[in-house]
Amino acid sequence: RVPVAAIYGFKPNDRLMWGVGAVRTYLGGALNYLPVVYYYHSFKNPKWGIEAVLPSRFALRYRPDNKTIVNAGFTVTGATYNLTRFRDFEAEYLTDNNLPQTSTNENIELRRSELRIGMGVQRALSDFIWVNLQAGAEAIRCFPKANVCFPEEIVCIGEAKRLPPGCKFEIVVK
Could you tell me which of 34, 84, 87, 146 has the fewest CB atoms within 10 Å of its CB? Predict the structure, then answer.
């Protein structure tokens, strides 16, 4: 399942781009059709700017030099997964742990949404290799379409899970 967006945009000058449109997305874990607003603005001091694709992300950007980008903001993501062979694995788990068997053949669809808030630093090592360091916090919410017999620490059911603040390091080739 793939999200799709269509945006009609304008570029009144070199410092401002904006657009409006619609998106078919899985924000929040379920299929949604939402309006979308794109906004990219560099202030008179070109080191500062805003990058936004609302409602899914927003970032305040700072460029101390041409090889470094510092940003802070939020990102909302979502996805849905169809677990077609889930019942086979569930039956094996129940048998291995001497638990009663269930008698349903319904496939499981797992829906997930995340809210990430934080900061990031990107640094160019060359023209096409960048290093990315991100730090922040996130909350994850999962919704199964049918009952799941695994323990809650494996599959989160219904409640938002607040993860402790963390870090992520990447090397990106552009």
Answer: 84
**What's the pTM value of the predicted model, to 2 decimals?**
0.70
Residue 47 in tokens: 């080191």
Distance between CA atoms of residues 91 and 140, nearest Å: 27
Cis check: omega of the bond before 12, within 30 degrees of 0 = no
| Separation between Cα atoms, residue 55 and residue 37, nearest integer Å | 7
Q: Give the three-state DSSP class for 79.
A: strand
In 4-67, the DSSP E strands lie at: 4-13, 16-25, 32-42, 48-54, 57-65
Give residue-wise pLDDT tens across range 97-123.
776 666 555 666 677 778 888 999 999
Q: Which of 112, 110, 113 is nearest to 147 (CA)?
A: 110
Q: Which two tokens stand for residue 149?
A: 């017999």
